[in-house]
Specification:
2 domains; single chain; Rossmann fold; 5-stranded parallel β-sheet
Length: 337
């Protein structure tokens, strides 16, 4: 089946008239493949465009600090202008896009990315992360090709499911023993245990609401096994938990975890990690009851309300109502005796 072209929003603060060759080439090659590509260089412009246009795909950079407007300057103590240091992170905008949920697929194309960025991207259900570099464009085009199969405008909601089980996948470096796992799951569901090697076979023969695999530190050797678990989503959803740090040596594995597109990625190094795993399992378990379906963040709805001119809407309503009344009067026939 032929893949259809996509409407793409491409955000990078270096996409100007003097854009680096790798960025200009990426945009050009996407257009040559028939995609409609809209380019933007700021977070605010990307958000504004999102509010007025439905995009199939959002390709974004993470480090958006290079474009600084005049409003981003203020006087320092010595009277000289200084840039206001703000967190210009593309991963924060990803949260906005996914919270409003119009079906837009998110791909990150960046040379930056902290561990916190990776954690956010995984939990905002981003489609994948592509690192800029020698083969960056080829990898990006390959990721976009995969995204074409994921993009759909059909509303397909899973039917609600009652009861069920959670599968705990055991690894060599699990942070919890079996007794602790039962405490983490609580009365949410019954729990089965299986080794990471035997997990795919178990998942193909048993019906689970959620699958969780936790490891203090995943390595490249775990990724092939985790990939076999991820393909079963969304029935069941996969929750992955591990220690997440800014250690450069672990960045490659962290990117691999993000690109598995787990339902939730939990940082075991955070405060109350056990509670975070419990919350992630609850969300995965109840997904089929629609907890997260079209769940727009209230603050963004309130933000949109600021731009509504209710007085103008009322005047337009009155004008239309008056026009309709006039038309109705003309159609009335004189009464006859």
């Amino acid at each position: 089946m032929e893949k259809r072209s996509l409407s793409i929003l491409f955000m990078d603060d270096e996409l100007s008239d003097n854009a680096p060759a790798h960025l200009a080439d990426a945009v050009e090659q996407l257009r040559e493949k028939g995609h409609e590509v809209t380019v933007t260089t700021t977070l605010q412009d990307a958000l504004d465009r999102f509010q007025s246009t439905i995009f199939d795909l959002f390709i974004m950079d993470l480090d958006m600090h290079k474009v600084i407007t005049a409003d981003a300057f203020q006087k320092g103590e010595d009277g000289s202008p200084r840039a206001i240091q703000e967190a210009y992170r593309g991963s924060d905008l990803a949260q906005v896009y996914k919270s409003l949920d119009n079906g837009c697929v998110i791909i990150v194309y960046s040379g930056a990315g902290t561990s916190q960025d990776m954690l956010k991207l995984a939990n905002y259900h981003s489609f994948g992360y592509v690192a800029k570099g020698d083969r960056g464009i080829d990898n990006l085009l390959n990721m976009v090709s995969k995204a074409q199969e994921a993009v759909t405008h059909d509303l397909r909601l899973p039917s609600p499911r009652q009861g069920g089980k959670i599968l705990v996948v055991e690894t060599g470096g699990m942070p919890f023993d079996r007794t602790q796992w039962k405490s983490v799951v609580g009365d949410l569901a019954s729990v089965d245990f299986v080794s990471i090697k035997d997990a795919p076979e178990r998942m193909s023969t048993e019906d689970y609401h959620a699958v969780v695999v936790a490891e203090k530190q995943f390595s490249v050797h775990h990724i092939p096994y985790l990939r076999k678990l991820a393909v079963f989503q969304p029935r069941p959803h996969l929750v992955i938990a591990c220690d997440i740090s800014d250690d450069e040596s672990a960045k490659g594995v962290l990117i691999d975890l993000v690109n598995l597109r787990p339902f939730k990625l939990v940082n075991l190094g955070a405060v109350n990690a056990e509670g975070a795993v419990t919350d992630a399992l609850k969300q995965a378990f109840h997904w089929y009851d629609g907890w997260e379906t079209f769940k727009a963040a209230i603050e963004y709805i309130h933000e949109a309300e600021k731009y509504v001119d209710y007085s103008a809407l009322a005047e337009e309503y009155d004008r239309c109502a008056y026009t309709d009344d006039e038309g109705d009067d003309e159609d009335l026939e004189e009464p006859t005796d």
